[in-house]
Amino acid sequence: MSADTTQTDELSRxxxxxxxxxxxxxxxxxxxxxxxxxxxSTITHPGSVKINVTGAFIVDQDxxxxxxxxxxxxxxxxxxxxIRLPNHTAVVSHIAVDIGGSLAKLVYxxxxxxxxxxxxxxxxxxxxxxxxxxxxxxxxxLKIKQQKLNGSRPGELCVMATGGGAYKYYDKIxxxxxxxxxxxxxxECLIIGLDFFITEIxxxxxxxxxxxxxxxxxxxxxxxxxxxxxIGSGVSMIKVSGPRAYQRVGGTSLGGGTLxxxxxxxxxxxxxxxxxxxxxxxxxxxxDMLVGDIYGTDYGKxxxxxxxxxxxxxxxxxxxxxxxxxxxxxxxLTNGDSDPPSSSQTNPHPSSETKAPPxxxxxxxxxxxxxxxxxxxxxxxxxxxxxxxxxxxFGGSFIRGHRQTMNTLSYAIKxxxxxxxxxxxxxxxxxxxxxxxxxxxxxxNWGRRGSFEESGGLGLDREYPSPGxx
Amino acid sequence: MSADTTQTDELSRxxxxxxxxxxxxxxxxxxxxxxxxxxxSTITHPGSVKINVTGAFIVDQDxxxxxxxxxxxxxxxxxxxxIRLPNHTAVVSHIAVDIGGSLAKLVYxxxxxxxxxxxxxxxxxxxxxxxxxxxxxxxxxLKIKQQKLNGSRPGELCVMATGGGAYKYYDKIxxxxxxxxxxxxxxECLIIGLDFFITEIxxxxxxxxxxxxxxxxxxxxxxxxxxxxxIGSGVSMIKVSGPRAYQRVGGTSLGGGTLxxxxxxxxxxxxxxxxxxxxxxxxxxxxDMLVGDIYGTDYGKxxxxxxxxxxxxxxxxxxxxxxxxxxxxxxxLTNGDSDPPSSSQTNPHPSSETKAPPxxxxxxxxxxxxxxxxxxxxxxxxxxxxxxxxxxxFGGSFIRGHRQTMNTLSYAIKxxxxxxxxxxxxxxxxxxxxxxxxxxxxxxNWGRRGSFEESGGLGLDREYPSPGxx
Lengths: 470, 470
Hints:
- Chains A, B: One of its GO terms (biological process) is coenzyme A biosynthetic process.
- Chains A, B: It comes from Hyaloscypha bicolor E.
- Two copies of one chain form a homodimer.
- Chain A contains 13 helices and 16 strands.
- Chain A has a seven-stranded mixed β-sheet with strand order 1-2-5-4-3-6-7, with helices on both faces.
- Chains A and B meet through helix 3, strand 12, helix 6, helix 7 and helix 8 of A and helix 3, strand 12, helix 6, helix 7 and helix 8 of B.
């Protein structure tokens, strides 16, 4: 019934660029490669666990990932790109969740008891926020599983929570799980997570262009300063000048929630990926007013090409009215010129069902995807200018590895900066906050290149350092 | 049939703030106050006419304005705020038109033959661009009238044209009227028009706030530099550093055309003013996701209030799906959990008519008006920062004197600049380009405070100086 199960399709498709083989991996039986167990099951107290990230890598063919604990494909969407930690042998007894306006993102570590390889992996899941009960149920199952493996007492599982839902659903989670829930600041978690991905995970960060769709950047340590543009339901832009030095400099309410909300109204689409799929097929020139539509040519003096979008959806009003006029004219209303249009004012929906405008759902989807992405790109560029930042990372669940979205964002940054700035993307773009919250429980030994500095460095002694909000 | 006739309602209502009396002026018989004629009908050659603007003022009670020449209320919308030029006595034998993507704006001078007062007035009209034939017909009638009054030869009427339509409809206008059509650069005309309004016309420029809705600025001469944000179908942002020194620094495709297009699809509205009227009654919190919806409270650390819009239309997707699930559940589809949603993917409109989402047209209208206005405000602020401009003028036909729009734009500038910058509006906001084109034919004697410098000053000897596009 729910279409959550299709959510990662597009993601997998785009990202398979760097995975040459196994197009049929999704049809493999589960856990084919996990046969034996050889796990050091050191049980340590939560909070002092050390995670060894040496040799961490992204698992691209993931048939060995666990599916939902309860076996249902309905409750959550399992993101296939787990991160394998081959040298980590300790049991981690906490899970992290980042509950946003539309999606709840979950990260947890799992050993692989039936594998002959040591270590384990970080698992990534997401749930729709309005199905938070499914998410809580999933965490409950994780807790039961964890207890069996670890023999730990119930109180020792700890849930790290961030995002707005960490506050809104705090009591619900605590009561349902009977465990501690530690709330962490959303912005702080985002940058801790991003810093981790940039500095630690190979083949994670990439630039996008049509000619070179997924150009990976090497992990590096000299990452500051940068701008993080996190696109979820809404958009936050965060200037990061050091490991714990950050400031939310702006944002826009025109984000993923706007795209999904408007397209669900306009096209009847019921899943994000259905919308993105339609956008791929659409032609925005059918609904957008281009410079050429206004000028009949380009506006060379200003450097605006004929194909530049002058007004998103700029053709709609005009064409819809034309269609309605024609319908009225053929309906015998041609003689009513001097009458005021009082009837249309009292009825806001004058037979809109019967006179369908000549716009297709794919065209509308593409136009709106362009509009939202371009707009975010422009504002990101302007913020980067204001704050003298030349590196711009785009994160958040809006992007979903979707080619058009990344291409539009990349193009916008390139266009506005005259090629001087670059847009960077991440394969785990939606999980920055969740990973950050996960890591906040692991202050030492994690960030081997300084992504998460030793305590005492920049205020880690304080449990909740105040962010650099100016 | 057409609702063009209601277009100025909102404009009149807002702007009557500074006109204490005569609420019933619109019902007065036409030309009540124009009894006798005392006109110096100096006929001069077009191009060397001098316009005397001494004592120019805005005519607020305008029952003496001519209606459309052909008597129809269908073809064009007559803007009621003519500008009276009491000391100008020459006949001006040209008209100016600024043809944009959605609207064509017309400006012409008319004497008042039956008035006992000398001088005449500048008249302002607009037509929808897709009714360009009505506009051309109106110009034809003006030409005939002008010839009767002036006895001038047909060739002496001259049409100044700007905007994209000056190129697209060049042949059409020339052939229909049999006169010269001089095309002028759009950006240049905008700033010439704006400079004129700022420096010459009392009670034209104002700031807007809820407590002081229309606070007029005195005309002044030290106006540079400033940012002009012209909001038509799309948005252009122009940095102006001197009388003829300007540069289009940016813009956005999310403009009036986007609002009108999306709202015509979403609400069935058929006129701009119907949409604005609905926006006045709506509650955006019904469709927008607020910070409080995500956090359950405010996000104090970052300074985001509970009522801040986190995601425009951010509630829609979620609520629509809930409604659809309920409809399906009650329709006996409760047992289909494990089935993939293949049917909804092949049909992009799964009975969207029968399951109406719980969103009202007024709520949607208000949300989108906020979203578009806020977005323009933020980008304008960021551009003003990048280019060190502290004064921001908003022009263009999108604004239409609408309170919510001006309030949102004002608030955005104030919010983002921490109160350091101000948004300025104009009563003739839609006519900057048309007035600029009109004035380009009158190089001397017009701008008494330097709004239009004497020839030779900054390149007026050249007929088409190249703009400062960098």
